[in-house]
Amino acid sequence: MYPLTLSRFTLTSCLGSGLEATRRALADGRSGLTHWRVDDSGFDTFVGRVPALSDMRLPQPWADWECRNNRLAYLALHQDDFADCVARAALRYGARRVGVFIGTTTSGIRETEDAFARRDADGALPACFRYRHAHAGFAVADFVRSVLGLKGPATVISTACSSSAKVFPAAARMIASGTIDAAVVGGVDTLCGTTLFGFRSLELLAQTPCQPFDVDRTGLSLGEAGAFVLLERAAGAAAPDDVLLLGAGESSDAYHMSTPHPEGLGARLAIESALASARLSAQDIDYVNLHGTGTRTNDPAEDKAVTGLLGLRVPCSSTKGVTGHALGAAGAVEAIVSALAVQMRILPGGVTTQRQDPALHCNFLRAPQTGRVRRVLSNSFGFGGTNCALLIGAAAA
Q1: 197: helix, coil or strand?
Q2: Burial of residue 251, with CB atoms counted within 10 A of its CB: 0-12 exposed, 13-18 middle, 19 or more buried
Q3: Are the C-beta atoms of residues 373 and 346 closer than 8 Å to each other?
Q4: Tens-place pLDDT, residues 260-277
Q5: β-strand pairing of 287-289 with 315-317
Q6: Residue 92 dihedral angles phi and psi, to the nearest 5°
Q7: Across-strand partners of 368?
Q8: For position 236, what pLDDT does the model report?
Q9: Euclidean distance between CA atoms 206 and 48, whole angstroms
Protein backbone atom coordinates (compact mmCIF):
# COMPACT_ATOMS: atom_id res chain seq x y z
CA MET A 1 0.00 0.00 0.00
CA TYR A 2 2.94 2.33 0.73
CA PRO A 3 4.90 4.29 -0.30
CA LEU A 4 2.91 6.89 -2.21
CA THR A 5 4.34 10.03 -3.79
CA LEU A 6 3.31 13.52 -2.69
CA SER A 7 3.39 14.65 -6.32
CA ARG A 8 2.31 18.22 -5.56
CA PHE A 9 1.17 20.02 -2.43
CA THR A 10 0.04 23.48 -1.42
CA LEU A 11 -0.78 25.32 1.81
CA THR A 12 -2.61 28.56 2.56
CA SER A 13 -2.79 29.71 6.17
CA CYS A 14 -2.26 32.78 8.33
CA LEU A 15 1.32 32.77 7.01
CA GLY A 16 0.15 33.57 3.49
CA SER A 17 -1.04 31.96 0.26
CA GLY A 18 1.18 29.23 -1.12
CA LEU A 19 4.22 27.32 0.03
CA GLU A 20 6.79 30.10 -0.21
CA ALA A 21 5.20 32.02 2.67
CA THR A 22 5.34 28.89 4.82
CA ARG A 23 8.96 28.18 3.86
CA ARG A 24 10.01 31.69 4.89
CA ALA A 25 8.17 31.50 8.23
CA LEU A 26 9.66 28.09 9.10
CA ALA A 27 13.18 29.24 8.22
CA ASP A 28 12.81 32.55 10.07
CA GLY A 29 11.04 31.09 13.11
CA ARG A 30 8.10 33.45 12.67
CA SER A 31 4.54 33.02 13.95
CA GLY A 32 1.45 34.12 12.02
CA LEU A 33 -0.83 34.37 15.07
CA THR A 34 -2.59 37.71 15.65
CA HIS A 35 -4.77 39.18 18.38
CA TRP A 36 -8.54 38.56 18.28
CA ARG A 37 -11.27 39.79 20.61
CA VAL A 38 -13.78 36.97 20.88
CA ASP A 39 -16.75 38.96 22.20
CA ASP A 40 -17.83 42.10 24.04
CA SER A 41 -16.90 40.57 27.41
CA GLY A 42 -13.28 41.48 26.75
CA PHE A 43 -12.04 37.91 26.29
CA ASP A 44 -8.98 38.05 24.05
CA THR A 45 -7.15 35.28 22.26
CA PHE A 46 -4.74 34.83 19.36
CA VAL A 47 -5.74 33.16 16.10
CA GLY A 48 -4.23 32.17 12.79
CA ARG A 49 -6.53 34.02 10.37
CA VAL A 50 -6.36 34.23 6.55
CA PRO A 51 -7.04 37.94 5.85
CA ALA A 52 -7.46 37.47 2.08
CA LEU A 53 -10.81 35.71 2.59
CA SER A 54 -12.67 38.76 3.90
CA ASP A 55 -12.89 40.57 0.54
CA MET A 56 -12.99 37.48 -1.65
CA ARG A 57 -16.04 36.02 -3.41
CA LEU A 58 -16.31 32.82 -5.40
CA PRO A 59 -16.46 33.28 -9.18
CA GLN A 60 -19.09 31.78 -11.44
CA PRO A 61 -20.05 28.98 -11.82
CA TRP A 62 -19.51 28.42 -8.08
CA ALA A 63 -21.34 31.44 -6.68
CA ASP A 64 -23.99 29.16 -5.14
CA TRP A 65 -21.25 27.58 -3.00
CA GLU A 66 -20.42 30.92 -1.37
CA CYS A 67 -19.09 30.50 2.19
CA ARG A 68 -15.81 31.22 3.96
CA ASN A 69 -14.76 27.56 4.00
CA ASN A 70 -15.22 27.13 0.25
CA ARG A 71 -13.49 30.47 -0.43
CA LEU A 72 -10.46 29.19 1.46
CA ALA A 73 -10.54 25.90 -0.46
CA TYR A 74 -10.71 27.78 -3.79
CA LEU A 75 -7.85 30.11 -2.82
CA ALA A 76 -5.64 27.22 -1.73
CA LEU A 77 -6.34 25.07 -4.79
CA HIS A 78 -5.06 27.85 -7.06
CA GLN A 79 -1.61 28.18 -5.47
CA ASP A 80 1.64 26.44 -6.40
CA ASP A 81 0.29 25.20 -9.75
CA PHE A 82 -1.77 22.68 -7.79
CA ALA A 83 -5.00 22.76 -9.84
CA ASP A 84 -3.04 22.46 -13.10
CA CYS A 85 -1.07 19.52 -11.73
CA VAL A 86 -4.32 17.76 -10.80
CA ALA A 87 -5.69 18.49 -14.29
CA ARG A 88 -2.67 16.76 -15.79
CA ALA A 89 -3.21 13.76 -13.51
CA ALA A 90 -6.87 13.59 -14.60
CA LEU A 91 -5.72 13.49 -18.23
CA ARG A 92 -3.31 10.64 -17.45
CA TYR A 93 -5.72 8.50 -15.45
CA GLY A 94 -9.18 9.80 -16.36
CA ALA A 95 -11.30 12.09 -14.20
CA ARG A 96 -13.14 9.09 -12.69
CA ARG A 97 -9.86 7.59 -11.49
CA VAL A 98 -8.88 10.51 -9.22
CA GLY A 99 -10.53 10.59 -5.79
CA VAL A 100 -11.10 13.46 -3.36
CA PHE A 101 -10.64 13.00 0.41
CA ILE A 102 -11.07 16.09 2.60
CA GLY A 103 -10.92 16.58 6.35
CA THR A 104 -12.94 19.32 8.05
CA THR A 105 -14.74 19.97 11.31
CA THR A 106 -16.70 23.14 10.61
CA SER A 107 -17.50 23.02 6.89
CA GLY A 108 -19.62 26.18 6.38
CA ILE A 109 -20.99 26.52 9.92
CA ARG A 110 -20.01 30.19 9.96
CA GLU A 111 -22.57 30.87 7.20
CA THR A 112 -25.19 28.96 9.17
CA GLU A 113 -24.46 31.11 12.21
CA ASP A 114 -24.93 34.24 10.08
CA ALA A 115 -28.14 32.84 8.57
CA PHE A 116 -29.65 32.17 12.00
CA ALA A 117 -28.75 35.71 13.07
CA ARG A 118 -30.74 37.03 10.05
CA ARG A 119 -33.94 35.00 10.48
CA ASP A 120 -37.12 36.88 9.77
CA ALA A 121 -39.99 37.43 12.22
CA ASP A 122 -41.39 33.97 11.48
CA GLY A 123 -38.02 32.32 12.06
CA ALA A 124 -37.35 31.56 8.39
CA LEU A 125 -33.75 31.51 7.22
CA PRO A 126 -32.67 33.93 4.45
CA ALA A 127 -33.46 32.75 0.94
CA CYS A 128 -29.78 33.03 0.00
CA PHE A 129 -28.75 30.36 2.52
CA ARG A 130 -27.96 27.08 0.75
CA TYR A 131 -27.51 24.25 3.20
CA ARG A 132 -26.24 21.69 0.67
CA HIS A 133 -23.51 23.94 -0.70
CA ALA A 134 -22.35 25.54 2.54
CA HIS A 135 -23.27 23.87 5.81
CA ALA A 136 -23.53 20.18 4.84
CA GLY A 137 -20.52 18.15 5.93
CA PHE A 138 -19.95 16.85 2.40
CA ALA A 139 -20.08 20.33 0.85
CA VAL A 140 -16.34 21.01 0.77
CA ALA A 141 -15.46 17.69 -0.92
CA ASP A 142 -18.22 18.19 -3.47
CA PHE A 143 -16.96 21.73 -4.07
CA VAL A 144 -13.32 20.65 -4.51
CA ARG A 145 -14.34 17.92 -6.93
CA SER A 146 -16.38 20.43 -8.94
CA VAL A 147 -13.60 23.05 -9.07
CA LEU A 148 -11.02 20.47 -10.17
CA GLY A 149 -13.35 18.80 -12.67
CA LEU A 150 -12.95 15.37 -11.08
CA LYS A 151 -15.54 12.59 -11.16
CA GLY A 152 -13.99 9.94 -8.92
CA PRO A 153 -15.16 8.96 -5.43
CA ALA A 154 -15.22 11.76 -2.87
CA THR A 155 -15.62 11.77 0.87
CA VAL A 156 -15.27 13.98 3.93
CA ILE A 157 -13.70 12.70 7.14
CA SER A 158 -14.64 14.57 10.29
CA THR A 159 -12.85 13.09 13.30
CA ALA A 160 -11.98 16.34 15.04
CA CYS A 161 -8.29 17.27 14.94
CA SER A 162 -7.18 14.08 13.17
CA SER A 163 -9.58 14.58 10.23
CA SER A 164 -7.15 15.61 7.51
CA ALA A 165 -4.45 13.20 8.67
CA LYS A 166 -6.87 10.29 8.30
CA VAL A 167 -7.58 11.21 4.67
CA PHE A 168 -4.07 9.97 3.77
CA PRO A 169 -4.56 6.32 4.79
CA ALA A 170 -8.16 6.45 3.52
CA ALA A 171 -6.90 7.43 0.07
CA ALA A 172 -4.04 4.92 0.26
CA ARG A 173 -6.51 2.08 0.88
CA MET A 174 -8.61 3.07 -2.11
CA ILE A 175 -5.56 3.34 -4.37
CA ALA A 176 -4.37 -0.07 -3.13
CA SER A 177 -7.79 -1.57 -3.90
CA GLY A 178 -7.48 -0.47 -7.54
CA THR A 179 -10.57 1.75 -7.36
CA ILE A 180 -8.57 4.89 -8.16
CA ASP A 181 -5.07 5.72 -9.39
CA ALA A 182 -4.53 9.02 -7.59
CA ALA A 183 -6.17 11.17 -4.93
CA VAL A 184 -6.48 14.78 -3.89
CA VAL A 185 -6.26 14.73 -0.10
CA GLY A 186 -6.26 17.59 2.34
CA GLY A 187 -8.16 19.67 4.83
CA VAL A 188 -10.06 22.96 5.03
CA ASP A 189 -11.31 24.65 8.19
CA THR A 190 -12.18 28.25 8.98
CA LEU A 191 -12.83 30.22 12.14
CA CYS A 192 -16.38 30.46 13.40
CA GLY A 193 -18.26 31.16 16.62
CA THR A 194 -19.00 27.49 17.23
CA THR A 195 -15.31 26.64 17.67
CA LEU A 196 -14.27 29.87 19.39
CA PHE A 197 -17.01 29.73 22.02
CA GLY A 198 -16.83 25.95 22.26
CA PHE A 199 -13.15 25.88 23.15
CA ARG A 200 -13.61 28.84 25.45
CA SER A 201 -16.36 26.96 27.32
CA LEU A 202 -13.95 24.04 27.76
CA GLU A 203 -11.37 26.52 29.14
CA LEU A 204 -8.93 25.40 26.45
CA LEU A 205 -8.48 28.73 24.64
CA ALA A 206 -5.26 30.60 25.44
CA GLN A 207 -5.33 34.38 25.82
CA THR A 208 -1.76 34.61 24.51
CA PRO A 209 -0.17 32.85 21.53
CA CYS A 210 -0.24 29.15 22.39
CA GLN A 211 2.93 27.71 23.97
CA PRO A 212 3.07 23.96 23.35
CA PHE A 213 5.13 21.99 25.90
CA ASP A 214 5.80 25.19 27.87
CA VAL A 215 5.68 25.13 31.66
CA ASP A 216 3.28 28.11 31.51
CA ARG A 217 1.05 26.83 28.70
CA THR A 218 -2.62 27.77 29.11
CA GLY A 219 -4.34 26.37 26.02
CA LEU A 220 -4.53 26.45 22.26
CA SER A 221 -4.71 29.10 19.55
CA LEU A 222 -7.20 28.37 16.79
CA GLY A 223 -6.29 28.82 13.16
CA GLU A 224 -7.70 28.36 9.68
CA ALA A 225 -6.03 26.75 6.70
CA GLY A 226 -6.51 25.07 3.35
CA ALA A 227 -3.99 22.32 2.61
CA PHE A 228 -3.98 19.93 -0.35
CA VAL A 229 -1.78 17.08 -1.60
CA LEU A 230 -1.89 15.06 -4.81
CA LEU A 231 -1.09 11.44 -3.91
CA GLU A 232 0.01 8.96 -6.56
CA ARG A 233 1.70 5.56 -6.61
CA ALA A 234 5.45 5.89 -6.18
CA ALA A 235 7.29 5.44 -9.46
CA GLY A 236 9.79 2.61 -9.76
CA ALA A 237 12.66 5.09 -10.07
CA ALA A 238 11.58 8.02 -7.92
CA ALA A 239 13.64 11.21 -8.14
CA PRO A 240 15.89 11.73 -5.10
CA ASP A 241 14.07 14.95 -4.15
CA ASP A 242 10.60 13.34 -4.25
CA VAL A 243 8.70 13.28 -0.95
CA LEU A 244 6.82 10.11 -0.06
CA LEU A 245 4.08 9.01 2.27
CA LEU A 246 5.96 6.07 3.80
CA GLY A 247 3.22 4.82 6.10
CA ALA A 248 0.33 5.69 8.39
CA GLY A 249 -1.21 4.40 11.58
CA GLU A 250 -4.60 4.93 13.21
CA SER A 251 -6.18 4.10 16.55
CA SER A 252 -9.26 4.88 18.62
CA ASP A 253 -8.74 4.80 22.36
CA ALA A 254 -12.21 6.19 23.29
CA TYR A 255 -10.90 7.19 26.71
CA HIS A 256 -12.84 10.46 27.02
CA MET A 257 -14.79 12.81 24.76
CA SER A 258 -12.29 15.66 25.01
CA THR A 259 -9.27 14.37 26.96
CA PRO A 260 -6.59 11.92 25.74
CA HIS A 261 -5.60 8.83 27.66
CA PRO A 262 -3.18 10.16 30.32
CA GLU A 263 -0.53 7.57 29.38
CA GLY A 264 -0.88 8.34 25.67
CA LEU A 265 -1.90 4.76 24.87
CA GLY A 266 -3.99 5.62 21.80
CA ALA A 267 -1.27 7.89 20.45
CA ARG A 268 1.32 5.17 21.00
CA LEU A 269 -0.78 2.59 19.13
CA ALA A 270 -1.10 4.95 16.13
CA ILE A 271 2.66 5.62 16.03
CA GLU A 272 3.47 1.91 16.36
CA SER A 273 1.10 1.12 13.50
CA ALA A 274 2.65 3.83 11.32
CA LEU A 275 6.14 2.48 11.89
CA ALA A 276 4.99 -1.06 11.13
CA SER A 277 3.25 -0.02 7.91
CA ALA A 278 6.46 1.67 6.72
CA ARG A 279 8.70 -1.16 8.01
CA LEU A 280 10.70 1.37 9.99
CA SER A 281 12.03 1.46 13.53
CA ALA A 282 12.28 4.27 16.06
CA GLN A 283 15.92 4.84 15.08
CA ASP A 284 14.85 5.74 11.52
CA ILE A 285 12.96 8.90 12.58
CA ASP A 286 14.83 12.22 12.28
CA TYR A 287 12.13 14.62 13.49
CA VAL A 288 8.66 14.53 15.06
CA ASN A 289 6.06 17.17 14.26
CA LEU A 290 4.05 16.91 17.45
CA HIS A 291 0.30 17.35 17.71
CA GLY A 292 1.33 19.72 20.51
CA THR A 293 -1.76 21.81 21.19
CA GLY A 294 -0.47 23.59 24.29
CA THR A 295 -3.16 22.27 26.64
CA ARG A 296 -2.42 20.91 30.10
CA THR A 297 -3.50 17.32 29.30
CA ASN A 298 -2.64 16.80 25.61
CA ASP A 299 1.05 17.63 25.80
CA PRO A 300 1.94 15.21 28.66
CA ALA A 301 0.04 12.34 27.03
CA GLU A 302 1.84 12.86 23.72
CA ASP A 303 5.17 13.27 25.48
CA LYS A 304 4.76 9.85 27.11
CA ALA A 305 3.79 8.22 23.81
CA VAL A 306 6.68 9.75 21.85
CA THR A 307 9.44 9.28 24.40
CA GLY A 308 8.19 5.82 25.32
CA LEU A 309 8.59 4.69 21.71
CA LEU A 310 11.34 6.90 20.28
CA GLY A 311 13.35 7.73 23.36
CA LEU A 312 14.82 11.13 24.17
CA ARG A 313 17.07 11.49 21.12
CA VAL A 314 14.78 12.51 18.27
CA PRO A 315 14.17 16.28 17.85
CA CYS A 316 10.51 17.30 18.26
CA SER A 317 8.48 20.48 17.97
CA SER A 318 4.95 21.71 17.53
CA THR A 319 4.29 24.22 14.74
CA LYS A 320 0.87 25.20 16.09
CA GLY A 321 2.50 28.29 17.53
CA VAL A 322 3.30 29.24 13.92
CA THR A 323 0.00 28.43 12.15
CA GLY A 324 -2.46 28.02 15.00
CA HIS A 325 -4.48 24.86 15.47
CA ALA A 326 -6.41 24.45 12.21
CA LEU A 327 -8.61 21.67 13.67
CA GLY A 328 -9.88 19.55 10.77
CA ALA A 329 -7.15 20.94 8.51
CA ALA A 330 -4.33 20.52 11.05
CA GLY A 331 -3.27 17.04 9.95
CA ALA A 332 -2.79 18.08 6.31
CA VAL A 333 -1.11 21.35 7.33
CA GLU A 334 1.44 19.50 9.42
CA ALA A 335 1.96 16.75 6.83
CA ILE A 336 2.95 19.52 4.40
CA VAL A 337 5.15 21.18 7.03
CA SER A 338 6.81 17.76 7.44
CA ALA A 339 7.31 17.49 3.67
CA LEU A 340 8.88 20.98 3.63
CA ALA A 341 11.17 19.96 6.49
CA VAL A 342 12.43 17.10 4.31
CA GLN A 343 12.86 19.33 1.26
CA MET A 344 14.43 22.26 3.10
CA ARG A 345 16.57 20.12 5.45
CA ILE A 346 15.23 22.11 8.37
CA LEU A 347 13.93 21.12 11.79
CA PRO A 348 11.07 23.58 12.51
CA GLY A 349 11.01 25.27 15.89
CA GLY A 350 8.25 25.68 18.44
CA VAL A 351 8.86 29.41 18.32
CA THR A 352 6.27 30.55 20.87
CA THR A 353 7.50 28.17 23.58
CA GLN A 354 9.72 29.92 26.13
CA ARG A 355 10.56 27.30 28.80
CA GLN A 356 9.95 23.59 28.30
CA ASP A 357 7.94 22.02 31.08
CA PRO A 358 10.47 20.01 33.14
CA ALA A 359 7.85 17.27 33.51
CA LEU A 360 7.95 16.75 29.71
CA HIS A 361 11.03 14.94 28.48
CA CYS A 362 11.05 14.96 24.66
CA ASN A 363 13.87 16.75 22.80
CA PHE A 364 11.80 19.88 22.09
CA LEU A 365 13.24 22.47 19.70
CA ARG A 366 12.28 26.08 20.40
CA ALA A 367 14.09 27.50 17.35
CA PRO A 368 14.54 26.13 13.82
CA GLN A 369 17.69 24.19 13.08
CA THR A 370 19.24 22.99 9.84
CA GLY A 371 20.13 19.35 9.47
CA ARG A 372 19.46 16.13 7.61
CA VAL A 373 15.77 15.26 7.70
CA ARG A 374 15.04 12.01 5.88
CA ARG A 375 11.99 10.72 7.74
CA VAL A 376 9.42 12.66 9.75
CA LEU A 377 6.68 11.45 12.08
CA SER A 378 3.63 13.76 12.03
CA ASN A 379 1.09 13.26 14.83
CA SER A 380 -2.60 14.22 14.84
CA PHE A 381 -4.81 13.32 17.79
CA GLY A 382 -8.49 14.28 17.96
CA PHE A 383 -11.29 14.46 20.51
CA GLY A 384 -12.72 11.08 21.40
CA GLY A 385 -9.35 9.37 20.92
CA THR A 386 -9.32 9.47 17.10
CA ASN A 387 -5.59 9.24 16.51
CA CYS A 388 -3.49 9.23 13.34
CA ALA A 389 0.27 9.23 12.74
CA LEU A 390 1.83 9.80 9.31
CA LEU A 391 5.37 9.02 8.18
CA ILE A 392 6.74 11.42 5.55
CA GLY A 393 10.15 10.86 3.99
CA ALA A 394 12.59 11.55 1.19
CA ALA A 395 12.71 9.09 -1.69
CA ALA A 396 16.49 9.16 -1.46
CA ALA A 397 16.29 7.69 2.04
Answers
A1: helix
A2: buried
A3: yes
A4: 888 999 999 999 999 999
A5: parallel
A6: -70, -45
A7: none
A8: 61
A9: 13
Q: What's this model's pTM, rounded to 2 decimal places?
A: 0.96
- For residue 79, CA distances in Å to 46, 153, 177, 284 come to 26, 24, 30, 33
Report yes or no: 50 and 30 within 8 Å, Cβ to Cβ.
no
Are 53 and 68 in contact by the 8 Å Cβ rule? The answer is yes
Strand duo 34-37 + 287-289: pairing: unpaired
**In whole angstroms, what is the distance from residue 337 CA to residue 142 CA?**
26
Q: Are 175 and 167 a contacting pair, CB within 8 Å?
A: no
Q: Smallest Cα–Cα separation from 185: which of 346, 13, 390?
A: 390
Q: How confident is the model at residue 241 (pLDDT cuts 50, 70, 90)?
A: confident
**Rg of the chain (C-alpha set):** 20
Q: Quick one: CATH architecture of 7-394? A: 3-Layer(aba) Sandwich (3.40)
Query: Distance between CA 253 and CA 54 in Å, rounded?
Result: 39
In sequence order, what DSSP letters do the residues of 79-113 get, joined into one string?
A: STTHHHHHHHHHHHH-GGGEEEEEE-SSTTHHHHH
Active-site residues, by number, are 161, 291, 325
Residue type for position 66? E
- Structural domain boundaries of the chain? 7-394
